[in-house]
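To: structure desk
From: M.T.
Subject: fold request, one chain
Message: Could you run this one when you get a chance? Sequence is below, nothing fancy, just the single chain.
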Amino acid sequence: MEVWQHTLRQALVDPAELAERFDVAVAPLQEVAQRYPMRISRYYFDLIEAPGDAVWRQCVPDLRELTDPTLSPDPLDEGRLSPVPAVVHRYPDRVLLLAGSDCATYCRFCTRKRKLGCSSMKVSEAELHAGIDYVADHSEVRDVLLSGGDPLLLEDDQLEAILLRLSAIPHVEMVRIGSRLPVTLPERITDNLCKLLRRFPPLYLNTHFNHPRELTPQAAAACNKLVDAGVVLGNQTVLLRGVNDSAVTLARLWRGLLRLRVRPYYLHHMDLVRGTGHFRTRIETGLGILQELRGPLSGMALPHYVIDSPGGRGKIPLLPESILRLGEQALLRAPGGETIEFPNH
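Reply: Done. Structure tokens follow.
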């Protein structure tokens, strides 16, 4: 067993373990965790300074998760867009391949919150093979995004087998990996893993830093190893109420990412996922932050602000020409010209 695997086994899964360091009422947190399981890597747990801080909010259960019944558990309609269990095919030339079944830390705002820690998150070997077969059978697919769960929680030989099969498909031009392990389990980014990834260019990895406190020396070392192995790194930040919804916080984060050779790629407006409403800001909040930082911050540090539209219709860039109305119900124009109403509260 490698060091990172041993560390992963020490993750906190019972809210009672939070009482090791913090004076908290455990029973309400356990009630939430029965519906939406908790898992926090020891490394990420050690970044918490106090209950309710920016790291705590991202990983510790909150009673408000149980009082958000109006939203969909699957707002992006991934179920409908899955021609086979391990594939989500939303855009014509690219697919999402659910290669991983677990995460080092369960983010409380996750788009797949309905599945995290549940049997429905599991992808069998047969389903994964069928997903790669689907890619091979669809010549229009040139871009494959490995997601899950976290694909980097696979063992090296499992990940190698996936990358070998994908690299043998003539029409697949590039592979991307979505992983939060540089943030939540940086020890997973081993020399052996980087040696493996180096063999499969072009390879892109989008990670998920949300707050400058996550830019630790360990995270920096993990990112540097990946970049030195030829992996192109981008970052997708989610705009979260009470975590990073200020220009000062995001400026520190995005400047810090560039120092690590990680390009800020997307600022995501929160998806309409059931159990996450307390994280959602108004669209004006994100627009205001970017307006405030445009000029004081290098253009390289400014990501695209986007909404992933309900019903699986894809991302809408939040630009003046795409915003038709702002109010309690925003009216947005999708790239294809369709107009979409989006709750803005």
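Reply (cont.): The radius of gyration is 19 Å. Let me know if you need anything else for the meeting.
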